[in-house]
Specification:
Helix content is 38%, strand content 21%. It has a 5-stranded parallel β-sheet, sandwiched between helices. It has a 5-stranded antiparallel β-sheet with strand order 9-8-7-6-13, covered by helices on one side. Strands 10-12-11 form a 3-stranded antiparallel β-sheet.
């Protein structure tokens, strides 16, 4: 099925790799698997993948370092779902900061991973995204141009800004409702949907990364304002085209 999304599973546990390969192929995906980082890079150098499922704890180079390198080399083009040990909240936060699009704690139900893969692929443009269904092609604010069809952000000077799938959806949610208070729960609904477990800190991490990309002074933001204990406001006028 050449048109099916191509998934790379990276995990040193052979039973988990084999289980996920069989399960995801059964649900229509093309799947390859790797046991560690060097094998992962061989696959990535020789083919295109639509998403990587990446374990945090790997022999040799760990998943956080691999995710950071992947983001540095490929930008947001290849989404990453990171697998972490249960209860390791700090690892999840660091994974998001390294550029992971989502996370899932082990042990997990393969059906939950399937739901998350489908959600990330929707946000990455391989399936209809909520923001594209809104009927607006672009959002313009403070000289910035957020193209919904092409899923891209251009700075006022015209250069393209790299956004992960999660960052893009979060900016769409904020800019699509300017000057309105949005709670973390509302932002989670808009960016991930009900098929993911609510994790407020994930929104805070994404907000921090977005500010670093669009604010002149991220420590004193003028566009994405924090309302302590309540949520965030996109405090800038937005033009829809």
């Amino acid at each position: 099925m050449e048109t099916a999304p191509h998934i790379l599973v990276v995990d040193d546990d052979r039973e988990i790799r084999d289980l996920l390969v069989r399960f995801l192929r059964k649900h229509g995906f093309r799947v390859d698997s790797a046991a560690e980082g060097r094998e992962m890079w061989r696959y990535l150098d020789n083919g295109r993948f639509d998403l990587v499922v990446l374990d945090l704890m790997l022999p040799g180079e760990d998943g956080l370092s691999l995710c950071r390198r992947l983001r540095a080399q490929a930008g947001p083009a290849t989404p990453v779902i990171m697998l972490t040990a249960i209860g390791e909240e700090m690892d999840r936060i660091i994974g998001l900061e390294m550029g992971a699009d989502d996370y899932l704690a082990k042990p997990f139900n393969p059906r939950e991973l399937l739901a998350r893969i489908r959600a990330v692929l929707r946000r990455s443009g391989l399936a209809p995204a909520p923001s594209q269904a809104a009927g607006s092609d672009s959002l313009i604010f403070a000289g910035w141009h957020l193209g919904l069809d092409r899923r891209e952000l251009r700075a006022p000077d015209g250069h393209l800004v790299d956004l992960t799938g999660g960052e893009f959806e979060l900016l769409c949610a904020l800019a699509g409702r300017p000057n309105r208070l949005l709670s973390r729960e509302q932002l989670l609904d808009q960016t991930k949907g009900r098929d993911t477990v609510a994790f407020d800190r994930a929104i805070d991490v994404q907000i921090s990364r977005l500010r670093g990309k669009i604010e002149a002074d991220p420590k004193n933001p003028t566009m994405i304002k924090t309302v302590r204990g309540a949520g965030y406001i996109f405090a800038v006028s937005v033009e829809r085209r």
